[in-house]
Design goal:
Largest sheet: 7 strands, mixed
Structural class: alpha/beta
Number of strands: 7
Strand content: 25-35%
Distance between the termini: 45 Å
Shape: globular
Number of helices: 4
């Protein structure tokens, strides 16, 4: 960690905590990196939690709409899995559990600070996507697969989700233009 503070004797706060980790995509271990704004470690309860800081011109109370429209739920799923990898593969965090993360939103135009909890459903959608809605969303695992499909096949003419389809199968990134 780059910086460590003691808020309480049993709680450590790390800022800019770097994690090198691996995710399995189609039986291939892909190296990933995560840089967490804050990692909170409660040594008494054996709990780890992370938080991400967002600074915005929007009123902080309205920021919840940005969580999906700006794909922030994907970032949180990616970080959540990075922290879980750390817990599973580090002697320092052996026996620890992970709690759900938070977003700390600061609005510099309205002088507001609001904390949002990220729930387990958003983590799941951020990881695997969601086909149950009118406009399905791609999770980070499928986006990694799409990236490798395009870069390895050099095929950029059609979206990844149409590569083997005989019919158009609509699956969008949250910020795709559907007009």
């Amino acid at each position: 960690p780059l910086h460590k503070d003691n808020v309480l004797p049993h709680i450590k706060v790390y800022r800019q905590y770097y994690i090198k980790w691996f995710v399995n995509i189609d039986e291939e271990e892909i190296e990933c990196k995560a840089l967490l704004d804050f990692l909170f470690v409660d040594t008494k309860r054996k709990v780890v939690k992370f938080a991400d800081l967002k600074v915005t011109v929007l009123p902080a109370l309205n920021y919840y709409t940005e969580i999906v429209s700006r794909d922030i739920y994907i970032q949180f799923a990616f970080y959540y899995d990075a922290v879980q990898y750390l817990i599973n593969n580090s002697e320092e965090f052996k026996g620890y559990k992970q709690e759900l993360p938070k977003i700390l939103v600061v609005s510099y135009t309205s002088n507001q600070l609001v904390t949002y909890n990220i729930n387990a459903e958003l983590i799941t959608v951020g990881k695997y996507g969601n086909n149950l809605k009118t406009i399905p969303l791609m999770g980070y695992k499928e986006r990694i697969k799409a990236f490798f499909y395009h870069t390895r096949s050099d095929n950029y003419d059609y979206p990844y989700y149409m590569k083997d389809s005989k019919e158009i199968n609509l699956k969008l990134f949250a910020n795709d233009d559907i007009s």
